[in-house]
């Protein structure tokens, strides 16, 4: 079995790894580190929780151990781009832990906080700068960060950065870097956009893939509860009564939905906090810290946190709402079963989310086991044969292939599972114009996932 000492790391790093309890490298580490120590560019494909941070942090620190020169003001020798504030902070903590006997200067640049402390930090120069793309571009534009001398660039969770719309900022940042840099691109999935980005940015890269694209963690026990939309909160509370659920992350599609679910759990006596893009950086840090230390049992999050939460001992992930992008399911359930542990992922799927469930099963190439918790009326409605459709399109039923329309005859629901007025306006006689009725009827609007 490969040991960290076999990878060519120096004693100062091996001592830190030993203190942190690292014994043997993971697959992504064992395969990537030798290439990176040679100075090669690298394209790494691996799921979250497989040890990607150490795979790039250790070779960078090894480079600095061999060359201990101080960085010049307003520069960074290594630049790591991350999609979220939480992930950026965790990457920085990892660099500090692995380099604890080297004491590298490590800084974090993210949005949602004051510019002034960041400017003061940059003015001293950094060995490692971990940043989100938007705020970093602000400092580049103001001349407070000069990227031309950066030696190593890392893009972590590159596919998630593209999902969040960071492709243009990333290209703008890369254009200002030296062409002689070493570039590392890590991603959990490999869509066409990532392949194109890798082709543009990487120079003859080594490629490492430790798991098939878009597969789910093998140690995660996955299960689906088919439920009526209005019953989701009751089912969630029932799940939280299980004493085996010692630390859980509940995912919603919207920020408002996350707040509502957290408030509902708190009102029922289940300690919960919400984390999403509308929270300030300090609020997000406090919520994560409380969850990590066990003061809060449940963290309710949107997809922006799906890859930014690295907390040991998460026993359960609950998809209160299925994601509209099926790849997000893989990243959500990857918050449990980390570090060799097992975990459970439970998805609450109402009738309108059945197409989303089919997309997830198609992507992950598996049929998820389910328990039918729907009402007898709902089951009877689903069992009824559909009537033939009029040729002129009048009275057209919703297609079961469209997640926005499926089940709308029964009742329309907000993303948080709350019932809206389900009564449809009377259909006008032929030749008459339909009058405005409320907001134009009760068809639920399709929403892109929000952070």
Automatic annotation (TrEMBL):
Domain DEAD-box RNA helicase Q: 2-30
Chain ranges of the Helicase C-terminal domain: 235-379
PROSITE patterns named in the record: HELICASE_ATP_BIND_1, HELICASE_CTER, Q_MOTIF
UniProt feature, compositional bias: Basic and acidic residues: 371-385, 405-417
Classification via Gene3D superfamilies: P-loop containing nucleotide triphosphate hydrolases
SMART domains: DEXDc, HELICc
CDD domains referenced in this protein's UniProt entry, alphabetically: DEADc, SF2_C_DEAD
Record-linked InterPro entries: DEAD/DEAH_box_helicase_dom, DEAD/DEAH_RhlB, DEAD_box_RNA_helicase, Helicase_ATP-bd, Helicase_C-like, P-loop_NTPase, RNA_helicase_DEAD_Q_motif
GO molecular function list: helicase activity
Keywords attached to this entry: ATP-binding, Helicase, Hydrolase, Nucleotide-binding
Span of domain Helicase ATP-binding: 33-208
Family from the record: Belongs to the DEAD box helicase family.
Protein name: DEAD/DEAH box helicase
